[in-house]
Amino acid sequence: MKDKISMPLIEAMLQYKSEDVYPLHTPGHKGGRGMQRLLRQELGASVQMDVSLMSELDDIHEPKTYIKEAQELAAQTYGSDACFWAVNGTSQAIHAMLLTALNPGEKLLLPRNAHRSVAGGLVLGGIEAVYLQPEYQPEFGIQMQVTVQQIEAALAQDSKIKAVLLTSPNYYGVAADVRAIADCCHAHNAVLLVDEAHGPHLGFSELLPPSALQCGADACAQSTHKILGAMTQCSMLHVQGARLDLQRAADVMSLLTTTSPNYLLMASLDAARAQVQVYGKEMAAAAVQAAAKLRSLCAAYSSGLRVMETADCGGLQMDSTKVTVNFAAWGYTGVEVGELFREARVAVELVDAYNVLFLVTYADVTTDYDEALARIAAVLNKMQAQKRAPLQLAAAAKVPQTQAVLPLRDVFYRAKKAVPLAEAVGKICGEQVSFYPPGIPVLLPGELVTEEIIAYCRAQKELGLPVSGPADSSLQTIRVIAD
Question: Which of 41, 290, 336, 385 could make an S-S bridge to 364, C-beta 3.0–4.6 Å?
Fold first, then answer.
């Protein structure tokens, strides 16, 4: 019975393929006939399913048949009132979530460590941001979550705040107290929006934290591709309850979605939903078990190597499939360790000043994974034998606080000029500066450049972290508001 679960869009695409229709329409490669040979060979039969927008396969902008049914099945699976597929990634879903919930000029309360895509939504919507500083975990040198007490105080102080945005779980798997925060928001007539990019697998097993929807969030944006079986760039926006207008959400999603959506991407969303709908509990158990093997491996090195556990999260829940390992006591930066693992043919999800983050999923149940663990162990053995003096990287790890001077949208339309980074102190930043991953802006447009921020940026560059956002990726110069 489990294998007979419906996948409406995939079934329609396979039916169309079986009819052997000659395509006198886009895409130009005509079912692979004209595609470059090497790429066609690598893609195989799947290239024939790269089809164009046509009545037989429904329209994501006005779904009436197969896409409509598939999105409704996704809503049922996750317990939302409506699900919208985002083929432009979770950035699109986040932008749509903001534009659905807020009108131009209205206020959004959010943590300052929100993903850089949130800033894009603020610009598009002309939304005013009110920032909160998340709690800081000094042993691992990472930002955690904002608290319900912080949110309660902010909402009580400013009744004009219409919505609250959380990032939960964060990149390191730490979940906010979403249930308490949802109750707080609703008591103040504010809606709760959740960037749940790293949580499309939550809600299917008690082994993991509950989902944002289960905790009462009004909307959440999920990266189906990050943790589940969808192709890269595939995400979902879920809306529930009466606080948000479903038709407006549909209108905004259509506004932000390409008029040439890739059907292979949408098919992978259909398949990922079907897979988690049927096997979600088993998939969660497999991921947790696979992550536990890696945790045990790393925890065995008790002479300073530290693995992040729930006890390190200040009473918050943690998704244990995110395995964060701190190497400061061994004298290695996360960047250096990431490079050592890559030389051993293991690529990690994230590196920072102190840590390496491994992302483990239900797919890590093969002999390949066990072989990768053996290579990780070999690297760790070599590092243990070559330990250095412990690192003191507090300045490189803790992001300085910032001060907003101008709204993001105003800065977007203002004239800007490039100045040497050292000469930017006291000037208003005109562009985003992030180190990626995790893509959390160190500076946002409209914020004041300070000596502390410049020192932090230089420290990140010295660590070898790639910069994202500024026109000059070397950060020799930075764009500021022109006088």
Answer: 290
